[in-house]
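User: Some background: our group keeps a shared notebook of sequences we're curious about, and every so often someone picks one and asks for a predicted structure to add to the entry. Today it's my turn. The entry only has the sequence so far, pasted here. Could you supply the structure so I can complete it?
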Amino acid sequence: MNNQPLAEEIQLETQALTPPARKSAGGHLLRLLIKRLALGLVLLWAVSLVIFAGTQILPGDVATAMLGQQATPEAVASIRKELGLEKPAPQRYVEWLGGAVRGDFGRSYSNRQDIAKSIAPRLKNTLYLAAMAAIVAVPLSILLGILCVLYVGTWVDRTIGIVTLSAISLPEFFAGYLLIAYFSVSHFWLPSSATVSDAMPLGQRLITMLLPCLTLVLAVVGHMMRMTRVALLNVMASPYIETAFLKGLPGWRIVWKHALPNAVSPIVNVVALNLAYLIVGVVVVEVIFVYPGMGQYLVDHVAKRDVPVVQAAGLIFAAVYILLNIVADMVAILANPRLRHPR
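Assistant: Of course. Here's the predicted structure to add to the notebook entry:
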């Protein structure tokens, strides 16, 4: 019996059904992306409400804090009018949010400088430091997680677990001071202050940033390593992995080519969360090492009760954190075939 016509008919039907299926999957991904972006915008709007309300309920008066306790009522009223503080809070919120959407955060109370122009180089420095720490921490954590899986239950696995757990158990300020004491005070190998500028050569800048970078790496590498280890161990218990072992494939090849691609989703999520921490949680590290980033800028103006700067910095940190979580969600969806196609 000749099955050639039947085979050709099945092939034609498959080719006819494939483009709509792909189109449906693409439309599903687009809908998911739009939904995530919409939820992110709603969340960012809610955060802006919290930030504005939090700065408004602070005790004391900004005008009085700027002029001092001996200021006359006329002077206080004049400065309040100049700063727009006599307007109702809802009106000030709408004006502030509208300006923030356009990239205009107003002017600083303390030095009357444009906040957007002041924040731009600080944000660049913070992103530079976070990127430098991520370049070290992400490959290192994945490599350590793979080593733990290859030598699970041995002294290698236990040693890596103890060291990384000890590193993430140390507060950032304590780890930073320990690094300063060892590398700067005891041995004079690295500078204790990470004051950088655009005029510095690249090599000198990287050396100056080594200690804050190492502090951030110690703070995040343990979380990413442990999640990589757990995700890989879950995949390694799958039947197809056991079949690969029975066929005699090397362990490193099984982990790298077969287990790791199927463990991408949880690993990407924890990496994205830690990258968000590298950007948002640098406040303590920047203060310790006097690094001219967003964290140092925020702390300096909190002490001065500079409300517009605090609002702008808080909103930027929230936007970065939400954006990285959206990216993590989309990468996880793309890495999981069950989430890529509509049910």
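Suggested note for the entry: Residues 1-19 have pLDDT under 50 and may be disordered. The longest helix spans residues 4-56.
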